[in-house]
Amino acid sequence: MSSAYDEIEYVSRPFRQTHPDRLAAIARLFGVNAPNPASARILDIGCGEGGNIIPMALAMPDARFLGFDLAAAPVARAQARIGELGLTNITVETLDLLDFPLAAGEFDYILAQGFYSWIPDSVREGYLRLLAKHLTPNGIAYVSFNAYPGAMLRHPWRDGAAFHTAVMGVTDPKERMIESCRMLQWMAAASSNPDTWTTIANEMVQAVQTKGMNWVSHDDFGPYFQPFYFHQVAEAASQHGLQYLSDAVYSDTLPHNVVPDVQQILAGLAQKSAILREQYYDFVELRPFRQSLFCREGIGVERSAKAEALREMSFSSPAQIASVSSDGSCTVRHPLTGMTVEVPAPMRKIVEQLRLAWPCSLPFAQIALAESNRSQVAETLLQLYGVSLIEAHLIPQRCGNGKEARPKAWDLARAEVAAGLIVTTRIHTQIQLDEVSASLVRRLNGTVTREQLATEFNDLDGRLEWLANFGLLDPDHS
Amino acid sequence: MTDYDVIAYPHRPFSQMHPDRLAMMGRMFGMQPAYPDKCRMLEMACGSGGHLIPLADHFPESSFWGVDLAATGIELGQKRIDTLGLTNIRLSAMDLLDFPADAGEFDFIVAHGLLSWVPAEVRAKIFEICQKHLKPQGIAYLSYNAYPGSHIRQMWRDMMLFHTRQFSKPEDKIQQAKGIWHLVANGTLRDDAGHQLAKEEFAKKLEGPDTAIFHDDLAPFWQPFYFHEFAAIAGQHGMQYVAEANYSDMQPTGLTPQAMQALDAVSKAGVVLWEQYLDFFKMRRFRQTLVCRADVALHRTVDPACFEQFHFSASIQEVPLDDPQAPEGTVSFQNGINKVTVTTNNPVTIPAIRALSEHWPCSMSFDELAAVAGENRQALREVLHAFFSSQFLNVHTIARTLANKVSEKPVAWRVARLEASLDMAVPHFHHGSIELEDQSVRKLITLLDGSRTHAELDAEMKNTIDLQPTLFKMMRAGILVG
Fold this sequence. Notes:
In chain A, strands 1, 2, 3, 4, 5, 6, 7 and 8 form an 8-stranded mixed beta sheet that branches. Helices cover 42% and strands 17% of the residues of chain A. In chain A, strand 2, helix 4 (72-85) and strand 3 form a beta-alpha-beta unit. Chain A has 4 domains: 4-149 and 226-296, Rossmann fold, CATH 3.40.50.150; 151-219, no CATH class; 307-393; 411-469, no CATH class. Chain A has helices at 4-7, 20-29, 53-59, 72-85, 121-134, 155-168, 173-188, 196-211, 213-219, 230-238, 250-253, 260-272, 274-285, 345-357, 364-367, 374-386, 411-417, 435-443, 450-456, 460-469; strands spanning 41-45, 64-69, 90-94, 107-112, 135-148, 228-229, 242-247, 289-296, 314-316, 320-324, 330-333, 340-343, 362-363, 391-393, 422-424, 430-432. Chain A is globular and about 65 Å long. In chain B, helix 6 crosses helix 7 and helix 7 (170-186) packs across helix 9. In chain B, the strands form 4 sheets. A 7-stranded mixed beta sheet of chain B has the order 3-2-1-4-5-7-6, sandwiched between helices. A 3-stranded antiparallel beta sheet of chain B has the order 12-8-13. Chain B has a 3-stranded antiparallel beta sheet with strand order 9-10-11, with helices on one face. Chain B contains 19 helices and 15 strands. In chain B, a hairpin with a 5-residue loop joins strand 10 and strand 11. Classes of the chains: A alpha/beta, B alpha/beta. The A-B interface holds A 148-150, 152-153, 155-156, 159-160, 163-164, 167, 183, 186-187, 189-193, 196-197, 199-200, 203, 229, 231, 256-259, 261-262, 265, 279-280, 283-286 and B 147-149, 151-152, 154-155, 158-159, 162-163, 180, 183-184, 186-190, 193-198, 200, 226, 228, 254-256, 258-259, 262, 266, 269, 273, 276-277, 280-283.
């Protein structure tokens, strides 16, 4: 069976927000005893080329993975990569979700990234049935979908593209993609007196330029495009015995961007119903997209994060202090997100500690070592987590720091540089290398000494530090 | 009991569905429809007759029939009809599904704010009524919410419906609907384009009447259409697209050269596709479309020669030039109602505009205009066509005659007198209405029955009003007929 994804490659890449380590941390923060991701069973629905689960499988050798996709071509590429890496804890198959075998058993984490809004109703229904049947009692389901009200503003160009390609009689998928983007571009640039709507359309044009036509082709111009209001998804999940747990990104659950009055309204709604609270929050945010976590009904979900849960976790952050004010507070910049946050003096020490440990994480005990008030440390960590300045882990994050005698880039990156410059990191991100760094990564197989490497590469220390900073190096095994 | 029995729809005339407008647009595109003063007209969803009653008074030789599901409005309209003693108009409380097959044929069938707000079976019936009851050269007017622009409105509608679902009283629903919108527009610290749009839309919504929120945004049925979908449904019912009721809505104005190029590329694909692209480019959210029988031969390019048969009117004033570099003899004119401005040094144009300005609120025929414009008929046609495209002037199939001076014993149109005694919206002879919040002005209008001199009016008004300027304003507004 062929699908649109056979003909135009979808960007198959790691989605950090779907990583079971992150999901487990959030679940536990809300009182759900999610299974230990290190030994979990994980299912990825619509896995494409395995860009999301292959790195997970390599990084978590004791976890077991199954991925499937309707499109055969990407699955074949995933299988080739799995064979190349010699992974035995992962299987990827071409499969129609509606044929998913009951015998597949239960999974602790079921991931569906970019799936729910882009399938026919029957498959959506099948997906929810699959969750009901195949999620372990404490398992976590990740689902992303296009959300109303924000996604309502994407209908005009989607419909415009459908109309235009029909008028043009375009059937070839690549040509369809080009004509669809052309129509979007026309609509964005049609008015000689640009208004606010035009700005929105132009942001989309820019997104296409940044993310590429393939991305928009599947997200907006594909055969299916069905955004939902959050409450609709929550109700559908409820019919299958599932309840809303949290957003997949903890900071997205916090109303950072609303006025105090609205914060109060949301807090009041939360007392009544978590679903109402989320729905109104989506209204106020005009949210166009959601990444939500669901678990089985009957599990007691805390409706506000419990800082105490952080005591069992470890923490990482590459954030750097950009400037310090006279009162001791400082400006912190996160190099991966580019975000800048003002933090009060007490947090500064933690930020500095984590920066020093980066790319490895520090366990709570070590951060709180010198502190008498451990509860206070937990609260501080929760605040930093709530602005996405730090990451919380159930599985300690361990990477090489570039000082190794025989530095080693992790296997996936070395496999990827054979064909290109875009590589996946141990910390589940992707970066683009320059040619020299790519040649260096090819040499970092763990047998070559840094003395030898120094004869081959200028500024080796600097280059290794750069690679280490992105989490591309394995920790020292020697 | 309908929602319209609980909260009445505003009682207003709509110039865009005046039979004169429909007749004029039809003629521009090659039809031979009836003239408004000798026509048979049907309005579906007539409310309390705000549109038809002034027409019935204006055109005693024409006949008008309005139907509406809500009996309350029909009763209000019937009282007005009785007061005015009109015999050429009938209002009936009726479910459109029961529309009688023997109702005969009409020159004009209009339905404002109906098509998008009814269930599917009634929607089909509306088209069926047009199909069965239009005369061979008859014209139907249907307004509806249009995509793609209505997606923006749908976003607000969904939020308002969700938020108001636990309320039952209409007043509460309206208040709560505004409340959720306020929350979205002003509850955020974000300054992204989406929230900017929310603020703009909310400000606009607050300018409009609450009844519009209730009957439009919160309506139980709310179905926008893409124009090509509308045209396809009309086609299934043996009808075809003629034009938009507002000619300016058909113009590809305000578009970039790139968008114009894209439109040119599809111009051979037919008017429906062309207009659909235009809607995508303009993010159109509302349409007021005219349709006629599919067997009528239309021409799609307007020949300005057809303008020789028409009459013209415009509320125009000369305004100061804003370009000091303009060549000698350049003059700027502004339409006092929609503020469209024209700057010209054309020797044909200037005397024509000045003459129109002097005649307002009366119209001038093409021949009269040609006489003042030095008989350059060819140039005058082109100019008038361009002015009409930009809404600088009004075009009529028959002359508009009313007072263009304040007489010694002024007479206000009797429909205006009646409405002034009932409501703030006072209809004028150009088939719009003006909102008069000032009670003393409304009282003055009720006194203008031609029996009182200025001195007597002053006495009766106990000098509460500055009489001369007010009367002048009423005259310019098209309320005085003598």
